[in-house]
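Document type: protein sequence-to-structure record

Subject area: structural biology

Format: plain text, a pair of labelled lines:
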Amino acid sequence: MRVLLKLILDCEPDAAWRAIRSPAVFREVSSPLVEIESLAADGFPTVWEPGQHPVAMRGAGVIPMGKQIIRLSVQTAERGNTRILHDSGQGVTGAVSSIKLWDHRMAIAPDPAGTGKTLYRDQLTIGAGLLTPFAWYSLWAFWQWRGHKLQQLAPSWAFDPPQPEAEGDPDDDAPGTDSGREPGQEEATA
C-alpha cells in the first residue's frame, strides 16, 4: 500500500534538498509522535549520506517501537530538475520489523508555476502481510503530521550557496582602490 504527499514548500529547492537530508529536520518533523535516536557510534551526521544509518524509535518518546536501518541513496530525475532521496531500509526489531517492504522516496523539484518555491513529493510504499492495512493507516496519519510540520518549517530554511573563490589579488578593482582608470572609464579590451 502507498502513502502519498504532494506539497508546495515555501522555500527554494536547494534549501528543501538540504533540509530533507538533515537528521535534525527528520527528528523535528517526526516529533513528538515518534522520537528517533541514532545507534551509530558517533550519533547522527550533520547531513545524511548514502549508506546505512541504524536508529531506535519510540512512540511519543516512551513506547519502544524497535530498531530500524535507514538505507539511503540519492537519485536525479526529469532532466536533472528533480532530486530524490530514497530510503529502502528495514525494521530490525520490535513493531517496525513487522513491515517487510519499506520503499520511501522524497522528491524535490522547482515549483512548476515558477514561484521559486519547492514542489515536494513524498511516496511511501509498505508491505506487512496481513498487518498492512493497520500499518498503512498509522503511517498515513503520521505522514499527514510530517507534511504539516514540513510546511511549517520550510519558510525558516535558507540556502547559503558557497562563495566563489576570488581570482587574483582580492584588492584588484575593489571599491575604494585605485585601478589606474578615471571614474566612468571602462577597461580596454583587446
Confidence is low (pLDDT under 50) at residues 174-190.
